Amino acid sequence: MTAAQAMAAATARLRAAGVPDPARDARLLLAHAAQVDAARVTLIAPEDIAPEIAERYDALISLRAVRVPVSHLIGERAFYGRRFKVSSDVLDPRPETETLIEAALAEPFASVLDIGTGSGCILVTLLAERVSAVGTGTDLSEAACLQASANAVLHDVAPRAEVIQSDWFGSVRGRYDLIVSNPPYLAAEEMEDVAPELRDHEPRMALTDEADGLTAYRVLAAMGPAHLAAGGRLICEIGWRQAADVVELFHLAGWSQVICLHDMDGRDRVICASTPPVTA
């Protein structure tokens, strides 16, 4: 069997299993099985596939057919031009979160705090883009902290990055120019409707607060000011239908200049807020 024939068979198998974009996944997994760059798959397509590669490929396709995410199978995911190591212990970096990155980089900062850092993709990206900045990432999950620390090493920002296990701001000390967060924002009732890749293979605590989806924003709005320097900013990702509720929460907590930014699909995605004015 040639590589092209194997890909065609794998695509048909994934399509029958209801996998979105099966041809793309079949190509990426063949590249991983053959240990070649995905861009070179077309070059090996006419060649016979070696038995050991065929065996690895079949195993990968079997797992993808039961909706194990491609990123978990190959162990990494692209985000803002970099490759991040991921696993079932952390939420996959997603393109819409790059909206948060762009908002954060729009103004200078010397220090950043990432609440719920997960894979560390936000913290590491911001430190990689701002080579003089320092930062801290927190996560309740010890496994996530280890993953974030590994990605900090991978992208050469570890000397400027501290990753600590913490429940929200519980173990955080000091003040920062910038606080960022992509918290769990799905309501408990929404979990049954999410894709199997998320529901069955990503950490539930990174997806939902098991309540109305707004718990994180109440915490950020209430506790954020105590950890922001004067003139500091807080930027957080939201669910695309949450903008009005989250903006109201921040306004009620006294934050100023609360605005909502859209993602690449034109959906509400990121809330930006400035430090509440100091009261006498």
Question: Can you put this structure into words, describing what you see?
Answer:
- The chain is of the alpha/beta class and 280 residues long.
- The chain has two domains: 3-66; 81-274, Vaccinia Virus protein VP39 (Rossmann fold, 3-Layer(aba) Sandwich), CATH 3.40.50.
- Helix content is 38%, strand content 19%.
- It contains eleven helices and nine strands.
- The strands form two sheets. It has a seven-stranded mixed β-sheet, sandwiched between helices. A two-stranded antiparallel sheet has the order 1-2.
- The longest helix has 15 residues, at 51-65.
- The termini are far apart.
Short key terms for the protein model shown above:
Rossmann fold; 280 residues; 9 strands; 11 helices; elongated; seven-stranded mixed β-sheet; 2 domains
Write the CATH homologous superfamily of the largest domain. Vaccinia Virus protein VP39
Structural class determined from secondary elements: alpha/beta
**CATH architecture group name of the largest domain:** 3-Layer(aba) Sandwich
Number of DSSP helical runs:
11
Tell me the number of strands. 9
Task: Give Rg in angstroms.
Answer: 21 Å
CATH top level class name of the largest domain: Alpha Beta
Secondary-structure element string: HHHHHEEHEHEHEEHHEHEE
Determine the fraction of residues in helical runs and give it as a percent range. 25-40%
Distance between the termini: 77 Å
Biggest pleated-sheet summary: 7 strands, mixed
**How are the strands of the largest sheet arranged?**
5-4-3-6-7-9-8
The low-confidence parts are: none
User: Approximately how much beta-strand content do the residues carry?
Assistant: 15-25%
- Backbone shape: elongated
Summed up, the domain count is 2
Look up the CATH topology of the largest domain: Rossmann fold
Average of pLDDT: 94
